[in-house]
Specification:
One of its GO terms (biological process) is protein transport. With 259 residues, the protein is α+β, with helices and mostly antiparallel strands. It is built from six helices and five strands, in the order H-H-E-H-H-E-E-H-H-E-E. Strands 1, 2, 3, 4 and 5 form a five-stranded mixed sheet that branches.
């Protein structure tokens, strides 16, 4: 290090004096430093403004690899057994309908003899029922049921005399209403006669279908009473005769009977 000039060795005209002992190349005089009059306080540097940093995007989760299952071997399907052929059923026989059977059946024609036989059978049935009822009441009165089928002479004879009287009174008192309307028909009537010939009762067993004729038959029986007393052979064993007959109001306005 070079020593500088001594205090007061500098020429005031040049402001610098070269030393004869120093080489010219090394004679560099430093400029005086200006010292501040007052020490200025050091200013701390302002911090640089923080820059807003954008949030880093979250990394998308990577899809986990799906485990690929190995295909399982399918069991071989067993062949279905061939169906056993079933025997074919025999064809049902074709039923042909009889055309005549499909036609409405006509009611059979009934002859007069059939009607008469049917009436006789019904009268016999009613007579048997009345006779049974009379037997049940034998303790009170002895009864005898008679009709056209009765074969005992004493009873059939009394019934014939009774019929003639009723027919005569009936023709004399034929119902005018039936004659005016032209009504005709048959009915079955039950008449009960006591031993002294008095009338015990009368009722319609089967109607003619016309109330005028039914009421006329009852009225004729009542008008013809009293009847003849029972003969001794009948009165000895019978207290009441139950007579069942078929009455016929004919087209000629006459009263008739079944035979």
């Amino acid at each position: 290090m070079l020593d500088g000039p001594a205090d007061g060795a500098v020429d005031g005209s040049d402001g610098a004096a070269l030393s004869a002992e120093q080489p010219a190349s090394l004679l560099a005089v430093p400029l005086p430093l200006e010292l501040p009059s007052e020490a200025e306080p050091l200013q701390e540097p302002l911090p640089a403004p923080e820059q807003e940093t954008e949030p880093e995007p979250l990394p998308e989760p990577k899809p986990e690899p799906t485990a690929v299952s190995e295909p399982q071997p399918q069991p071989e399907a067993e062949p279905e057994p061939e169906p056993t052929p079933q025997p074919r059923p025999d064809p049902e026989p074709v039923v042909t309908a009889d055309v005549s059977a499909l036609a409405p059946a006509l009611p059979p024609r009934i002859s007069a003899a059939d009607i008469l036989a049917s009436r006789h059978a019904e009268i016999e049935r009613l007579t048997a029922r009345i006779d049974a009822q009379g037997s049940a009441a034998a303790s009170r009165a002895r009864r005898k049921a008679i009709s056209t089928s009765t074969r005992e002479y004493r009873y059939s004879s009394y019934m014939e005399a009774w019929r003639r009287k009723v027919e005569r009174i009936g023709n004399l008192n034929y119902p005018e209403e039936a004659a005016r309307q032209g009504l005709f028909g048959a009915l079955i009537l039950h008449v009960a006669v006591r031993a002294d010939g008095s009338l015990e009762g009368v009722r319609v067993v089967r109607s003619s279908g016309h109330a005028v004729l039914d009421q006329a038959a009852i009225r004729i029986v009542q008008l013809a009473a009293p009847y003849a007393p029972f003969p001794d052979d009948i009165a000895a064993e019978t207290d009441v005769l139950d007579i069942t007959r078929t009455w016929q109001f004919q087209r000629n306005n006459r009263l008739g009977w079944d035979n």
